[in-house]
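ugh ok so i messed up the first submission bc i forgot one of the chains. this is the corrected input, ALL of the components this time, i swear. 300 residues overall. if the numbers dont match what u have on ur side tell me asap before i send this to the collaborators (the ones from the other lab, u know who)
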Amino acid sequence: MTSKKIVVVDDSRTARQQVIMALADAGYDVIEGVDGRDGLSKIVSNPDAALIICDVNMPIMNGLEMLNALKADHPAIQVPIIMVTTEAQLELVQQAKAAGARGWIVKPFKPHMLVAAVRKLVGDTL
Amino acid sequence: MRHEDWNQLNAIVIESVTSLLASSGVETVYAGCAEDRVRGWADTISIIGFGGDKLRGSLVLSAPDGLLVRTHPARGTSEEDLADWLSELANLLLGQIKARLSGLGVSFVMSTPITLSATTLRFRRFKGLPVMHAFDSDEGTVVVMFEAIGDDSAQLAAPAEEPVSLDAGEVILF
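and heres the new structure output, hopefully the right one now
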């Protein structure tokens, strides 16, 4: 069976590594993006991705801008998105929700909590 | 900002450092606030800026390599791994400070962090000396400088009755 593909967008290499380790252990394939613009490019070139995990504060294009650009320029891509970020303000969470995000996780996170959220959104049972 | 607001701000910085490092399995003891230009700085530091209506400035974080190796989430050990992790720790720390301050009516935008390496680090400013917080751990001393400029008329508000932010590690799905 082919593993489901997840796009992980974060400017911190350590943060990407942490997410990748958790997802790889759970059997997912991961594609990395290093900022919002790169992430958008990776999402567009991998329309079969099952999920996107995205940071908020990033150089070049931040996560909320990426979310809005995806919605405006590529409406056919309907992939669930979880924001994983140090930002914790409910106001930002609401902005992300309005832009189409399906979840929000505040760093630092427990890997098993991330995997549980991913499984729920991609429809995988434990 | 009033003197008591600065005291409260410093308490928030200390609480945030202690809590963040504890979540990575490192217990620290607050070793005081030092008006000392060179105390305990490692050769590598991370700097992250912030700006808002009431408060702007930067946070500087220095941590010993042993602590970075022990807490690296992906078990990285190279110089590049540790520099990146130090940046991420500065980002996490400022995020926790921001979340605590948001409940007191202070909000700001965070920059992305950078990490610098130098043989000798010395911080100065024209009015007074920067205040640095030192934390002892079994891996050595962690130093945090929270360099902030506050609007004279700005004050920290009373704690919000309803939560305005999520907690670290919290997960919500829509």
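quick check: The radius of gyration of chain B is 16 Å. that seems consistent at least. Residues 35 and 130 of chain B are 6 Å apart (CA to CA).
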